[in-house]
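S., here's the first fold you wanted:
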Amino acid sequence: MVHSEMLVEPVVQELRIPAGIAGPDEVTMDVRCFLVSHPAGLLLIDTGPGSADAIGAALDRVGAGWGDVTDVVLTHSHPDHVSGLADVAARCPGAVVWAGAADCKDITSTVPLRALADGDHVRNLQVVAAPGHTAGHICLLLEDGILFAGDAVFTDAGALKRPPGAFTADPVQAEESLRKLSLLEPDRMLVGHGAEIPDPAGALRRLLEGAPETS
């Protein structure tokens, strides 16, 4: 597999959250994994529930196979981002699996997990520690200004929003992490839930300032 340009391929699945977990009603939302190219192959960000077949289809779309996946990086320990790990790891047994150091103990894995800290690099991605949503939540920054934000924020109908408080371990830390991400001024920002929006740097600033977002 050879790519002359950077490739970022999203893998989008629908997730249904039963009533009483994220609110009084059932919630339907998307959950996203990402394939990212690097000179030696592909890196996979997150492994959602039952995602292996969808990831396999994405590999087909880009002319690659499971053997091209060199690394799997988990942004955090929540099941909607890690519950597909065993199936994914079985399909790419040569891949190294990484996660934020503080979340490793909370992730069930059939393969060893390698711990990541702020400033580390996995291939062409820089690790940006962004605790709050979970203690070991991480974001990933590509050299060309693409930020993979995990669940530090999400988008809904074109608006940038904070994750629900019920799923945020430490709201104070989460807010500090948002400020840290805003200082990166990303050109693009891809999130674990929701479509990409324009002007992510401006959207982060407005979110922190409390200004409403418009679609």
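And the second, which I think is the more interesting of the pair:
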Amino acid sequence: MDRLIHTALNSLNIVKDNAFIRSNNLANTSVPGFRADYHLKTSGTAFLDNYDTHITRGLSIKDDNNIFDASPGTLNETGKELDVAVRGDGYFITQAAQGNSLSRRGDLDTNADGQLINGASAIILDDQLQPITIPPYRSINVTENGEIIIEPLTSAPGTYQSVATLGLVKPTAPLKKFPDGEVRYADNSPIVANQGARVVNKFLEMSNVNLMEELVSSIEEQRVFEINLKLVKAAEDIDRSGSSLLKMPS
């Protein structure tokens, strides 16, 4: 009977963990370039581990069995000069606390030091893995290969200058999300720009979270949760019945 209860409790634990993963997916539906996590039976989440911290980037599955959805999200035209989206397979290179990482987030801007950052305040790196500093400009444009061209504010109108080239990666090995929520090569090998990806300017890639799929899965797992609760109760009733049969007559 203990095995029956343990099986039911394990299922309840899986449903609970998946609910946290799904909640994290749903919370990041409006985050540009976010990659949804799959719900796995053997996984915990970095979201759970960092629930009480101040980490604000999209977090994900933490163990070696994690899988995230690498399919592209919808491209929305924004018209903003610093909005950039990766077309097809590829990633930007960003600077993270625990080493460089890969990102699809292209809502770019500059910080107080003039460095190029994305909406999560991660510093964007160039093809030499160095931070990109943008001088004051009248206009700015990003070419298909990631070259950043500006019309400097200090130059005569119509004068253009190439500032840097976005560091781009077309993955050459499997990727995974690490406990800090960042995407890197699964074997943690160094990230090197190979410029194999292509970008489109004034477009933004949205999250690839499938809202309908998440909601339907939520309903299905609620049913699984209720069934397993009934199974625990049934096991308890069977156990009590068996114990009463073994009682010594009074």
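Why I say that: The longest helix spans residues 211-245. Residues 52-208 form one domain.

Talk tomorrow,
H.
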